Structures are given as C-alpha cells and as structure tokens.
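Long-time lurker, first post. I've been practising inverse folding by hand and with some scripts of my own, and I keep getting stuck on stretches where the structure tokens seem ambiguous. Below is the full token string for one chain I'm working on. Before anyone asks, I'm not after the true native sequence, just a reasonable design that respects the backbone. If someone could post their per-position residues I'd love to compare against what I wrote down in my notebook.
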C-alpha cells in the first residue's frame, strides 16, 4: 500500500498540520489498481510503471470523475482524505473478473493495468479484495532508453528500492500531483495527446537538483517498504518548468 503524504507537517501551529489532521479524520478511501501479470508473460517493469501512472491520470480526467458523474462523489471523498492507492496483481480468470467491474483498462507496450473508482478502505469489492498485493516484482529485460526531454518524466529516487507494485502506486501519486499543478490548458493538452510520459531512475546528482527545483515531489507515509517521509518520485512536466 502507498499513501500520499504531500501535505508537510511543520509544527503544531501550522495550517498544514490542521489539514493533515482533517485528512486523517475524514472517511478513508483507496484507489484500486490491478496489474495483469501472467506467469509466462509478465510485463516489463518500466512499462508497468508508466501504464499505472497513465491509468491514474485517465481516471482523474474521465467525465465520470467530475461534476455529477457516476464516480465524482467517491473521487471527492478520496481526495478529501489521505490519497491512498493500492496495486494488486491478477492473471487468468482473476483478470477477466476484474474486467467486469466498473473501471478503465489502460495498455502500455505490453503492460495492462485496470484502475477503479475509489472504494472505502474496508469496502473492497470481493473480486478485488482477494487479489494479492505481494508478488508484483518485475524486471526490465534491458535498460530503458533515455527519456524524451519534450515529454513529462517521473523521476525515481535512485537511493530507494521498492517493489514494482509499490513503485506503481508512487508513480501514480506523482502523475496526480503534476495533474493538480498544471493549468487547465496544460491539462487539456496532456489529456488530448493520451497522457504521454516516461518513468526513469534519476542519477544521484540529477536527483539532488530535482529536489530543489520546486517540481511536484511525493513523500511516502512509510507504512510499507520504506521509511516515513521518504521522497520517492518527482514529476518533471515541461509545463511546470
């Protein structure tokens, strides 16, 4: 599981502390993502990370998530609390059952990820609740190519080691922070082109520069795998530079 900890805690008198407390006290929801991992044909790690990030963006941009849309209320409830995302894996009949539930399936080069509207933390649909969170380790068969500087890049912290599932949640967070930070015109342009993006691991020197750039940065709550407050991903969108 991964949680969005983008509200800094700077002291008892800080308004950010009040906002965090309000988020903690609100009813908690989670955004489910399911990645298809067949035994004989798992996706490449980077392909899965990029596909998960695009899945989050497509849900946020979907007309059902806005206004009086079918998902709008649960999306608002989810955003008013901690921004939790959980990635589970499925194959075969599990994947086919997941396809029957309300959501969006997103494909990458070979990766397939289905994102669902937020659900109460303790109210997962049965066919999703029984899917495994563990076992999402994936590899890249060869090093990814250098990113296109004209496209958004979600840069991973080179000093952290996370499972593919954990990292998918983190890249989803980073994409969401970029979406929130963009102007309406930039959002529309990104959406119109299908949310192109890349995910890459920064070099230590580049990461140090990025952390002082003012670009959207994800800090994890530290409930799984890594220490609380760890900086995991920075969203480098050309429109935010």
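-- Answer (accepted) --
I ran through it position by position. Result:
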């Amino acid at each position: 599981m991964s949680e969005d900890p983008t509200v800094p805690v700077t002291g008892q008198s800080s308004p950010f502390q009040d906002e965090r407390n309000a988020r903690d006290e609100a009813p908690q929801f989670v955004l489910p993502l399911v990645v298809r991992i067949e035994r004989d044909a798992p996706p490449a790690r980077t392909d899965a990370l990029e596909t998960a990030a695009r899945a989050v963006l497509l849900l946020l941009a979907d007309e059902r998530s806005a206004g009086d849309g079918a998902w709008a209320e649960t999306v608002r409830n989810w955003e008013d609390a901690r921004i939790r995302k959980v990635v589970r894996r499925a194959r075969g009949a599990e994947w086919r059952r997941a396809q029957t539930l309300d959501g969006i399936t997103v494909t990458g080069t070979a990766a397939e990820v289905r994102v669902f509207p937020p659900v109460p933390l303790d109210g997962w649909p049965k066919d999703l609740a029984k899917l495994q969170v563990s076992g999402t380790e994936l590899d890249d068969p060869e090093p990814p190519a250098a990113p296109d500087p004209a496209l958004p890049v979600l840069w991973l912290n080179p000093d952290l080691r996370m499972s593919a599932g954990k990292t998918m949640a983190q890249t989803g967070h980073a994409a969401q922070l970029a979406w929130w930070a963009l102007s309406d015109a930039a959002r529309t342009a990104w959406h119109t082109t299908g949310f192109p993006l890349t995910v890459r691991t920064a070099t230590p020197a580049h990461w140090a520069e990025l952390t002082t750039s003012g670009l959207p940065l994800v800090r994890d709550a530290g409930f799984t795998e890594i220490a609380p407050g760890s900086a995991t991903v920075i969203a480098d969108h050309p429109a935010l530079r």
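A couple of notes from the structure itself: The longest helix spans residues 164-181. The beta strands are 2-4, 29-36, 83-90, 104-107, 112-115, 119-120, 153-156, 198-201, 217-219, 231-236. Happy to go over any region you disagree with.
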